[in-house]
User: What shape does this take?
Amino acid sequence: MYVAVKGGEKAIDNAHRLMAETRRGDTGVPELTVRQIMEQMRLAVDRVMSEGSLYDPELAALAIKQACGDLVEAIFLLRAYRTTLPRLAVSSPVDTSAMRVRRRISATFKDIPGGQLLGPTFDYTHRLLDFSLARESFPEPAPACEHEERPTPRVMDILAAQGLVKSRDIDDTRPVADITRDPVAYPAGRDIRLQNLARGDEGFLLALGYSSQRGFGDNHPFAGEIRMGEVAVCIAPEELGFEIEIGAVTVSECEMVTSFTGSKTEPPTFTRGYGLCFGYCERKAMAMSLVDRSLQARELGEDIVAASQDEEFVLSHSDNVEAQGFVQHLKLPHYVDFQADLVMVRTMREEILGAGAQGPGCPTARAKDNAGEAA
Assistant: This one.
């Protein structure tokens, strides 16, 4: 017999205390500080900032600590805090061509203007556990960069100047949508899609990008350019009438190059997929650019045959905060709903079994028939 459950305030309070105890762990071990997380778990902090849509490393580190390292929970915490903040100003579009580059590679051109910079990367490690890190470590400082700071124009702009790639669809006079204030409507413009992808779940986008590479969507890209570094953030207060720089943020940017066969009115060109996110989130930026290119199928007149090309599928399911909320709500009491389904299933079974007991296919009838044949 299923019955409704009442109360639980004391149990919930105790669950919170138990969670706090679990989060702290052995009190004989020094407590992890927010500063330690911020400095030594930078990639986790950057992912939480990117998908939490709030650039604040200290708050992101605090969220990771509070969430016991559960990044989706930390993203949820940061996203919730974000909604409490006043909006003081809207920044101008960041100019990534003026980025103070710390990493910049291109898989399409070896000798790119400004040079290639490997920067910090796992790409050339052997993926072997470094047991020396089990102890306190003091790595040797990396040699100072002797690279002369030179302009680093985007690789895609070089192709665009030669007419080999479709130009960006830039219209500064058109208002930009804001998915944090207005619900997404379909068909969605590229500004909406890119905002959604920027705070989308890295794992989800990675899987979709991977599927497009494997042939689900016929997307065979080249990494035109991947760069990471600091860009200036500027605002233009109305009372001043000119832009002022208010700070800088670390971003990762990726542009993928994909071939396009052209049409009756357009010669064959390359197309581009774009990814930009907070922090050092190179894998996220690459996955984002793959999916961005797939979602341009409608504008390019391509057949929409794969999940990565279906904007409603992608945009509706990429947000891990919404997804985990809908999945985890199944933990809430559903006693009445299940009781209704239980009654319905029992009624249906009784009707079917009752009808079968009177027909030739019921077990009792078959046993009688077999006994008669044997006699």
Q: What stands out?
A: The mean pLDDT is 88.
